[in-house]
Design a protein that fits this description.
Radius of gyration: 15 Å
Structural class: mainly beta
Number of domains: 1
Order of helices and strands: HEEEEEEEEEEE
Mean pLDDT: 90
CATH topology: Immunoglobulin-like
Helix content: under 10%
Number of strands: 11
CATH architecture: Sandwich
Low-confidence stretches: none
CATH class: Mainly Beta
Amino acid sequence: MEAMLQTALREDALTATPGGFELRLGLPWIRSMPLSSVAGLAVEVDCVAVPSGELTVLLGRRRVPAGALPEESGWWFVQDRLVLSGRRELHRGAHAVTVDFRLLVPYLHAGPGSPLVLPFRLEAWLDPDQAPVPSASLDVT
């Protein structure tokens, strides 16, 4: 499990964009999961929370509010990156980035009629000027 957590926020995960940033998040789980299993997505940059209304997920050409992922029908494949977008301009240099979310695992039960819910907290120092790392990963669409 620890290796999955370490690769969820790779060194090139953070990118500066005009007016904000994109953060590419790897799935810290052993199997691909439906997007609807992602809940409570929250991001902090340099210990300041990105307001939930300003955090979106890029699914191909669509921007979906982070809180609307439970309504999505697509999949987050193990090798792919979920692209989070925030409206906060970044200064040059490294930033402390924290991502919190819950993953509802529909095929594992925590009790009668309720799925296992795994809380994740991912933390990394990321530099938006970091050169991309060669990878076979694609962005979730």
